[in-house]
């Protein structure tokens, strides 16, 4: 199989590999091009790296062509700044103030920061694109679900049914930096798209400071800045869902692209032998019940990967792949409950059997 070295991504099936990290492992790339079985024993280290707990997850950033600690520090300060805007649970955040109508209003309109209005516009775009399968007004429902409770507990059917009428992106009117709501009970949850947007802003910051080889890992939202210093692509492993040792099912070779996954194994609870995951159906208030374990989106911008991964999970394999086929420079990999991989157009031709090389 001949694959141009200029192709933005190559996908390789992996042997039974052990992943380290929360969702995706970034492998050290061992050759300039070619399909070879991945060696999962390698680890990813840059000239400098840093880790912190922000956005309710573990954040790690690797810089490959800079050893400037101030740049690294600036990345985490920027992430904290956005957390203070977009968090739905932090009582001091701007979104919290909007949801609780604490922000000052004029004639029912609330004036937003540029950062919040910009992300809301992305959220509304994907809400409309998916016809509500992805919906940023899911907060009245998502706030009912506690996937960390011990013992596990489900929200009551009455509570869910009582909040469903408040869920619809059509109740939001965003005009520039002004927002208004058609119903008082409408509240916003940006958790399905904020990490991607923030990753893009961190990339902008890094390139503005002269960094052109880096990895931004926001709890599994991976954004590769450029390539490794020698021009080789980074490698990103797609986790095998529910694997006890975080096995990789596939390895992506990525240059200046984002990799974002949404899966049933990321956050869930079990009650009376049934698994309830965090990807909620906006029409029922309960987790989507389909044959999908995970969706991975490869795209130039991480915010698009975030919005599309949730959207494509909700749409299902057939409709999701059809959507991705219409989007330029965007790719998808589904893993279904039978642990089969399903690729969007443009990817399957770049798959090499395990152990082969060219």
Structure write-up:
The chain has helices at residues 69-86, 94-99, 114-129, 139-142, 157-163, 194-208, 302-315, 317-325; strands at residues 9-18, 25-27, 48-54, 57-63, 105-106, 109-111, 172-175, 178-181, 213-218, 221-226, 234-239, 247-254, 258-263, 268-271, 274-277, 292-299, 331-336, 341-343, 351-352. It has 358 residues and is an alpha+beta fold. The chain has two domains: 9-83 and 195-352, Roll (T-fold); 89-181, ApbE-like superfamily (T-fold), CATH 1.10.3980.10. It has an eight-stranded antiparallel sheet with strand order 3-4-9-10-13-16-17-18. It has a five-stranded mixed sheet with strand order 2-11-12-1-19, with no helix packed on it. Strands 5-6-8-7 form a four-stranded antiparallel sheet, covered by helices on one side. It is globular and about 55 Å long.
Number of strands: 19
β-strand amount: 25-35%
Helical/strand content category: alpha+beta
Distance between the termini: 7 Å
Shape: globular
Number of domains: 2
Average pLDDT works out at: 85
CATH structural class of the largest domain: Alpha Beta
Q: How do the strands line up in the largest sheet?
A: 3-4-9-10-13-16-17-18
Task: Give a short account of the largest sheet.
Answer: 8 strands, antiparallel
CATH superfamily of the largest domain: ApbE-like domains
* CATH fold label of the largest domain: T-fold
Residues in helices, as a percent range: 10-25%
> Which residues sit in consecutive blocks of at least 5 with pLDDT less than 50?
1-10, 12-44, 349-358
Annotated CATH architecture of the largest domain: Roll
Order of helices and strands: EEEEHHEEHHHEEHEEEEEEEEHHEEE
Determine Rg (CA atoms, Å).
20 Å
């Amino acid at each position: 199989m001949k694959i141009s070295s200029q192709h933005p991504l190559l996908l390789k099936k992996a042997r039974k590999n052990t992943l380290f990290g929360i969702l995706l492992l970034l492998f050290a790339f061992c050759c300039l091009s070619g399909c070879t079985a991945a060696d999962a024993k390698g680890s990813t280290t840059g000239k400098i790296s840093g880790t912190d707990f922000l956005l309710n997850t573990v954040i790690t950033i690797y810089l490959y062509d800079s050893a400037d600690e101030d740049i690294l520090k600036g990345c985490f300060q920027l992430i904290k700044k956005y957390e203070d805007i977009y968090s739905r649970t932090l009582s001091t955040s701007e979104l919290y103030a909007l949801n609780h109508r604490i922000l000052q209003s004029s004639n029912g309109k609330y004036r937003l920061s540029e950062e919040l209005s910009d992300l809301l516009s992305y959220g509304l775009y994907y809400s409309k694109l998916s016809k509500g399968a992805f919906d940023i007004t899911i907060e009245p429902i998502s706030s009912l679900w506690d996937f960390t409770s011990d013992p596990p507990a489900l929200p009551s059917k009455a509570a869910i049914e009582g909040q469903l009428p408040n869920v619809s992106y059509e109740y939001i009117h965003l005009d520039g930096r002004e927002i208004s709501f058609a119903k008082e009970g409408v509240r916003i949850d940006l958790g399905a798209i904020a990490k991607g947007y923030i990753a893009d802003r961190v990339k902008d910051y890094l390139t503005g400071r002269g960094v052109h080889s880096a990895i931004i890992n926001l709890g599994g939202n991976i954004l590769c800045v450029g390539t490794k210093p020698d021009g080789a692509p980074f490698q990103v492993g797609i986790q095998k869902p529910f694997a006890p040792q975080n096995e990789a099912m596939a390895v992506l070779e990525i240059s200046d692209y984002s990799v974002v996954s949404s899966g049933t194994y990321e956050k869930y609870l079990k009650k009376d032998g049934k698994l309830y995951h965090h990807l909620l159906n906006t029409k029922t208030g309960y987790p989507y019940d389909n044959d999908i374990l995970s969706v991975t989106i490869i795209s130039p911008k991480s915010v698009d990967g975030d919005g599309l991964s949730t959207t494509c999970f909700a749409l299902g394999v057939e409709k999701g792949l059809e959507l991705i086929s219409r989007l330029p420079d965007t790719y998808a990999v589904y893993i279904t409950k039978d642990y089969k991989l399903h690729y969007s157009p443009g990817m399957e031709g770049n798959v090499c059997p395990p152990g082969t090389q060219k």
